[in-house]
Specification:
The chain is built from 6 helices and 17 strands. With 304 residues, the protein is an alpha/beta fold. Helix 1 (11-22) runs parallel beside helix 6. 42% of the residues are buried. Bound molecules: NADP nicotinamide-adenine-dinucleotide phosphate. NADP nicotinamide-adenine-dinucleotide phosphate is lined by residues 42, 45, 47, 113, 115, 148-153, 155, 172-173, 177, 199, 233-236, 280-281.
Length: 304
């Protein structure tokens, strides 16, 4: 029996763990993949107040150390259900383990959105990647493409432009969602070409990626671009289906809860990118973690 079971050890989950431990209660995080979540793959973080510049890896490492040195624990398990039993919660994991707690915080973040086109899954790991920081080095001196128009796509393109021969940014509009500074940096690179108002129509290659065929949305024109790598950076999607018994989901699958991080089930809270919200940033994930943790501790105290 732990006080607060936290599902997810990304920035929201680990921030929650820090606040739970500092409140004198025990926190255990269940992590399905990697501590730090998606931020691990970000090469540069320059917008977290108080830290001028760091990498996603360093940031995650710091969070992990801070939480565990305070006594929090991380178990590498994927939670698949939350059941309320009288005053406690029983959380089952994919491997068949069972955890019981007095309160639960869901901090599952979001996973990479896929294009959903032919050969995307088959060629993942054979030219197709969702993480330029992890896989970019395999494409030194080669031509690659990045798909997307957000901060991730711009940062990926900038990162890849340092050692790839040519980087195409394929984006479905002619305006970018990413920060203007990053866009300017990308535009100043001679080896980056913007392919705008375009979507990927086809992926070519049998055992490895050979080319992408893009369709211009205005003219309908098709263009085949030979590339060895395609980095898909078209945003994230939540993965909360397993928890809909205890938490309402909005149309897009995010957990419907306000800034108080409370779900429809007393004792179950939500924090970070998996919650319905308009700004998904490290700062808002950390903020949710603190709010959810303190609410969970107050809930436990109210039960005594
Ligand atoms: P995002 O901001 O949601 O951008 C996703 C991009 O992919 C958009 O340009 C979108 O096009 C495009 N897109 C979505 N679905 C598509 C589809 N099916 N086909 C083609 N294109 C599609 O995602 P993100 O860039 O991963 O960023 C996620 C969050 O993390 C954001 O809040 C971002 O600011 C933050 N972030 C921050 C940093 C940093 O501060 N250092 C770094 C990375 C990410 P439209 O624009 O047309 O919708």
């Amino acid at each position: 029996m732990v006080d607060v079971l936290i599902i997810g050890a990304g920035p929201a989950g680990l921030s929650a763990a820090i606040y739970v431990q500092r409140s004198g209660k025990k926190a255990v995080c269940l992590e399905a993949l990697v501590v730090g979540g998606q931020i691990v793959n970000t090469p540069d973080i320059a917008n977290y107040p108080g830290i001028k510049k760091t990498s996603g890896f360093e940031f995650s490492k710091g969070l992990y150390e801070q939480a565990t040195e305070l006594g929090a624990e991380v178990e590498y398990e994927k939670a698949v259900s939350i059941k309320k039993e009288e005053d406690d919660f029983r959380v089952l994991t994919e491997s068949g383990k069972e955890f019981t707690s007095k309160a639960v915080i869901i901090a599952t973040g979001a996973k990479n959105r896929h294009l959903g086109i032919d050969k995307e899954e088959a060629l993942t790991g054979h030219g197709i990647s969702y993480c330029a920081t992890c896989d970019g080095a395999f494409y030194k001196k080669k031509d690659v493409a990045v798909n997307g128009g957000g901060n991730t796509a711009l940062e990926d393109a900038l990162f890849l432009s340092n050692y790839c021969n040519k980087v195409y940014i394929i984006h479905r509009r002619d305006e970018f969602r990413g920060e203007p500074d990053s866009l300017e940096a990308v535009k100043s690179k001679e080896n980056v070409e913007l392919v705008l108002n375009s979507t990927i129509d086809e992926i070519k290659g049998d055992t490895a990626l050979e080319a992408v065929v893009v369709k211009n949305k205005e003219t309908g024109e098709l263009r085949e671009i030979p590339v060895a790598g395609l980095f898909i950076a078209i945003g994230q999607e939540p993965d909360n289906k397993d928890f809909e018994d205890v938490a309402l989901l909005d149309k897009a699958g995010y957990i419907d809860a306000g800034e108080d991080c409370k779900t429809k089930t007393p004792g179950v809270f939500v924090a970070g990118d998996c919650r319905t919200k308009s700004v998904r940033q490290l700062t808002t994930a950390a903020s949710d973690g603190a709010v959810a943790a303190l609410a969970a501790c107050a809930y436990i105290s109210s039960k005594k």
